Structure formats: structure tokens, C-alpha cells
Amino acid sequence: MKPIFLLLLGTMTAAISNAQIKTDRWLKELLEQHASPLLKSVLEQPETYQYQLIYTEIKRDAHQRPSFINHYLNVDRNRYFNPASTVKMPVAFAALEKLNRMGKTVTAQTAMLTDSAFSGQTAVTKDATAENGLPSIEHYIKKIFLVSDNDAYNRLYEFVGQKTLNTALWKKGYKDIRITRRFVPMTSEENRHTNPIRFVKDGKTLYTQPAAYSDLQFRFPATKILVGKGHWDKNDSLINEPMDFTEHNNLPLEDGHMLLRSVLFPESVPAVQRFHLTEDNYRMLYTYMSELPYESRFPAYDTSEFFNSYTKFFFFRAGKEPVPDHIRVFNKAGWSYGFLTDYCYVVDFKNNIEFMLSATIYVNKDGILNDNKYEYEETGYPFFKEVGQTIYNYERNKKKAVIPDLSRWKLMYK
Q1: Which letter, b or e, does each residue of 73-101 get, where b requires 16 or more Cβ atoms within 10 Å of its Cβ?
Q2: CATH class of residue range 22-409
Q3: Can you tell me the distance from the alpha carbon of 180 to that of 189, in angstroms, rounded to the nearest whole number?
Q4: Which of 85, 121, 220, 248 has the fewest CB atoms within 10 Å, i.e. the most exposed one?
Q5: What are the extents of the domains in the chain?
Q6: CB atoms within 10 A of CB 15
Q7: What three-state secondary structure class fits 226?
Q8: Positive or negative: CA dihedral 72, 78, 81, 83
Q9: Is the bond into 299 cis (omega within 30 degrees of 0)?
């Protein structure tokens, strides 16, 4: 038996280490045991690929109540990665929450017309991809989750407002989240200004939201966040200096993972962390998170471009494989500047499997950002596929005391 002092010292050392980087030896060994040469190479170079991974086992009791067991690999909330389109997920949640706080006059299906009132802003009064030809919060949410549409995100960012969005997330305990910008070239000041918006039904204006300005004071890190060794700027000039991400969007992996869980399993998190959503809101989100592009009529997507697994990084994206009918993936993925990230909950109705999996990886061998030379296909997507398959196989082979009832996740897709 080890001396008590050494046991205490080991516990203290682990606690100090985990305050910075969370790693479960078991998860690392599981991945290494089944890893291809490519995955082994990635796992052996955490500084190069900056990968982080969270795997959550879900166990049900006799009353089908879930408990969650998190396993971590190289998770460090202080290590920045560009969240790209994954920030669209909390913005969609916050848009529905704001709508509910406005009362019952306006719904997610009400036509939302966006005007412009400041430099850089654009107006939207029509949407040819909608069945009725008009934009709405629900239609924007659908496009965000099915194909990660940037304009849809911009419009919901404008509806919620920079200040309301961030303060709402901070109040839920996500102090490190920072969503400062649209996905369109704008200055920091322009991103603080949001457009006037009208909600209209049958030619009648039901609600008007004036243009707004965010005076929010962000807690930007004291040390600049610099990535790469060079970057191409907006003038297509190569700048031989790292790119500055200090004031860019920020969404730590643990926070994105918990945001997804708070909407999929709201009863599993403290009340303060839940979004103020209705049953219809939840059903809408679950549908669009898991729907595939070919299942949508409005919009009708070109499936040669927006293929079956377009936004499903785990398992399928690497080879553009179709998602089997008995599997549904509820997720939000993002890709930009060489960073790939995915937050997902996987359900297999045939084999009675469910688990959560979130990861990010950086694949930019030449260190130059904005040159569109990233190893997404060669390294990034294969990483997600193999990690997903390893976890899935583990889930499929392990014994379960209680078989989960997954009927909640069997949804109708128009």
C-alpha cells in the first residue's frame, strides 16, 4: 500500500493538473488501442493538432432517468480554438428564448423582416427558400442546423442583439463564452450595432424592434490570442505575422458540450442553465438538429453539394457516407481557419445506443491562415470518423443494466 502522504500528493497533483488540462487515461488508451497509423500520429502530437475531446456515457435507471459520465482527452478551456459555426447553436437557442419572453403575439413562424440602419448592415424582406417566400426565425434555425447557413446566423444575431445574447449566456454560468461578431466582414463597432426588425402577418406589423447598440464590456484575455505564423488579410495580402483572434468569438469545448446537453436533456442541468423554451421549441430544435439535407423540401438542397452527412463530422463526413436510417445525430459542427469542431448526441434505434461526443482539432500544416490550404480531408475528417467509430463500437459491445427508451428521438421529417 502506498503511504498516505503519497496518495494525498498524487490527488493534489491530479487536481492541479485537471484545473488546466482534463485527460482520462482510460479514454486515451481506448483510442490508442484501436487507432490507425493516422490517428496514432494525431494523438501523439497534441501541440500540433491541438485536439480536445469529450465523450459522455449515458446510463439510465429503472425509471429511464439519465445520468452522465464524462470522459476527457486534452480538454483545456484556456486553449483557444476558433469555434466557427458552432456559435450558431447558442444563438439559435437564445433567439427562441427571447421570442418566448416577448409574449404570444409573435411566433417562430411569423415573418421576420430585417431593415438596415448602420454601415455594413443589409436588409432582408424575402426568402425564396421558404415555402411562403418570407423569412422567419424557424426557417433561419432550420438552415443553421441543416447546412450551417451564415446569413441565417447573422439574422438571428441581429434579432437577439450582441448584449442580450452574451449577458443571457453569462447568467447561465457560461462566463467564458464570447460572441462578438456576425459572419460577414464588419468592424468591431459595426458588430455592436444591430438592425431594426419588423414581425409582420397578413400585411400587418405585429411587433417592431428598433435598431440597437451594445455597450457591453467584454473580458478579453490580457495576453493576445495569436494563431499561425502568417495570414492573408482582407486585401489579399500575405501578412507574415500570426492572426489575432483576441476579440473573435469564443466557445470552450466544455461549454458547447453542456449547451447541447441543456437543450437535449434540460432536466439534467440546474434550472439556471436551462433556456426558457416551450415543448414546440424543443421539438423544432430536435428535428432540425437531426434532419438531413435530402429530407428538406424548403429549402430544397442540391445534394451533390449538401450531401447526406454534410454537417455530420463523426462517423460519416470523411467519406461522405450516408447516415443509416437507424442512426440519428443531433449536432452542430463548424469549420474555419483550419479548426474543425463538432458537438453531437448520437442515437442508434436498432442497437439501443446513445452517447454524447464533442471534439475539436486544428489542421493547418503550413501555418498560414486564410489560404484555404487546410488538411480537412486528409486528417481532420478522418480523425472525427475514427474517433466516432471507436466510441460507437465500445458502446455497442458494453453491457447495459437498463436498455434506454429512445422513442423520444423518433421524429417526423417533412
Answers
A1: bbbbbebbbbbbbbbbbbbbbbbbbbbbe
A2: alpha beta
A3: 10
A4: 220
A5: 22-409
A6: 9
A7: strand
A8: positive
A9: yes
